[in-house]
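seq:
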Amino acid sequence: MGVINAPWDKNGLSADDAPLVRLCHDLRQYVAAGLLLSEQSSATIDEAAVLGRMSLIRQQFAAIAELLEVEQDARRIGGVNLSRLAGECADVVRVTHRAAVIFERPARVTVVGDQALLRRAIGNLLDNACRAAGGAGTVQVHVDIVDGEAWVEVSDDGPGFGDVASGTGLGLRVVAEAVRACAGRMEIRSTPGAGTTVRICLPAGHRPVRSA
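struct:
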């Protein structure tokens, strides 16, 4: 793996335009998930399913509120449950993408950072991976902690960098900016025809306990 230092000015955005473009880019997936979750199903839905859907809709609004706060420079650096956060991001992309998203919830891993920025980073990684994997592909999410450093890793079985249909071009830039603001780093491994793995490494808050 190698650390990526991307040129941030390739999109030609001015300092004034960048925050709005970045916010719109991130809001897209939460709005799409909320709309899909709020659609009426032709099948009979039991009470448990309705409550589960309402919980996911509430999660989308909470994520949007976080993003709006961080764009107003309301940074909140503190302990973040990385295990739970990764699981919530996985729930969003399962609604908006057809790729199989596999996430085995690990023991609780806590990091020091801003939850809104980390949600933005993980959400963008998952969105990129699902687009790369396609409807028949698989995306895997792992969270762990080793020697005081925590990480979340997203892998897909797509064609690798350079062979994926392009999106807005902001995905990795948004991820890198968010990770850097949380004193972390990003590592990427990509093999043509064998998929891509992106790992976000962050300073851990404390060692894992029994459950997330």
